[in-house]
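quick one, 203 residues, struct below
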Amino acid sequence: MTRHQLRIKVPVGRIETVIEHPDGERRGLALIAHPHPLHGGTLDNKVAWTLARAVLACGYVAVRPNFRGVGESEGEFDHGEGESDDLVALAQSIGRHYPGLDWTLLGFSFGAYVQHRVAGRIPATRLIMVGPAVSMYAFDPPPVPAVILHGEFDELIPLDAVRAYAVEYGIPLHVVPGAGHFFHGRLKELRTLTEALCRLHSN
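---
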């Protein structure tokens, strides 16, 4: 695996981004969005990091940006609007260097909200939403095939709210037993499930 830490130019300024390449064949691109930037969310969040490990194991190039205003990323928090624009511009810029590879989008909590907005604007084939903040933001039906991973005992985003959203739009929901919102003690299970979903999609 090789790792690059870059500051990629988008309309708002430069966005700090970590790009990690898998060993061996590159099967796709994975864009990973971290949780809420005003509540400590960064590209180093342990769930975002775990998702990156999972997609790398499946042969995907893992791309983890910091949202605007976080770390070395320029700009200020924009409630998901500007953050969506930034990720679209970022994906377009990075995608030019990997012709023929489509995007898989992964987002955790607030990051899932942003990614479901991004999905219809770039060549994405799959959306994986982890702990999506459906009780805090207005989620539309995903424009691409989607799946939800959620903790059984999520203390911030009630499982019932997520289940209702999943049922309304026919989205497969995988409940991680014993997990809270941040998957304390359940990151291994989250990684295993994410890997299985990515491998299924790659075959």
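The CA atoms of residues 44 and 134 lie 23 Å apart.
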